[in-house]
Amino acid sequence: MYKQIYLKRGKEESLNRFHPWIFSGAIQHLDDGIEEGETVRVITSNGSFIAVGHFQQGSITVRVLSFHDIIIDNDFWFSRIKSAFDMRKSIGVADDPNNNTYRLIHGEGDNLPGLIIDIYGETAVMQAHSIGMHLCRKEVAEQLVKVMEGRIKNVFYKSETTLPFMDPENGFLYGGSEDNTAIENGLKFHVDWLKGQKTGFFVDQRENRSLLEHYSKRKSVLNMFCYTGGFSFYAMRGGAKLVHSVDSSAKAIDLTNKNVELNFPGDNRHESFCEDAFKFLDGAPDTYDLIILDPPAFAKHRSSLRNALKGYTRLNLKAFEKIKHGGILFTFSCSQVVTKDNFRNAVFTAAAMTGRKVRILHQLHQPADHPINIYHPEGEYLKGLVLYVE
User: Fold this and answer.
1) Residue 226's closest CA among 156, 295, 161, 150?
2) For 388, which of 215, 233, 309, 359 could close a Cys bridge (C-beta 3.0–4.6 Å)?
3) Was domain 74-190 assigned CATH 3.30.750.80?
4) Which residues fall within 8 angstroms of residue 167, CB to CB, at 6 or more apart?
5) What is the pTM of this model?
6) Which CATH class is domain 3-66?
7) What's the angle, vertex CA 44, arms to CA 43 and CA 47, rounded to 5?
């Protein structure tokens, strides 16, 4: 039987609304000897069971796995993974011959808080964001292989950056392959699942990259914070006359160049620059028809929200100053603590400071394989705007 955690009076209200987090301030006391990552039962102040989940020291003390009094075993993992896989098949993302890249497990969005699994062809890349999921990694990998029924031949575990205090070792839990080439909407790219950011590629921008392709014909395109160059080679396929990719990381630029060459060998329309984004924009010409701003999260915690919003305003201001008359700006924020209204106000402020006429063409968000649990609105992290700038 699992050890138990007891809530203060009235602190079960969010759980009655199926929110999957229990914060440290809600806890009255806990059984002796509970260890980091251990599965626990949660009991209300009147002695009733309300949830079972993973315990961890910190602000979020329990990540809820189920609101039913069940054992977290192989059947549980199989059922949750299969549910996620069935959803991806139902929306067509897991059965598209032109696309073998998608997110299979999106944490709370798939009722598996603390777990991310991305599929790149025959390789699944698993990432834990909680100690509990780290401790269950082998069981999860085993059930993942069963659910996928031969679709994947490798499971790579990559949590060195998400759980640095645990010092987890990246490596294959199942199989093993050096083939790191995947396909997204018919375009090929290399995935750096060993040392790259996230699981090696930003799967969440797939549909937004596809939209950008339709706006790229005969455009001069600037892709800031390019990372692996996703937006760049979509722009090239869309008929851009010129594409410049910028990132402060030399490794990112190297990967961008490899990905462009993989899809457009010998194409001289593309040039990359390893330089700080703000410095590059300061010296950039005002000749770009289309600019993409897809920076890393400026705010990871609420305490840094104010500075983050200043950063988004400053960045978009520079883009408004540089983009040509009639240009199109794709601008994004992936900071979870930055709301859609926060982001829109930051961009509005930047536009007002330039005095340019700006119209919203699209309001963008994360794709369907990054679902948002309706009881966990914090899962809506990616927001973007496509703007027409006069």
Assistant:
1) 295
2) 359
3) yes
4) 160
5) 0.94
6) mainly beta
7) 75
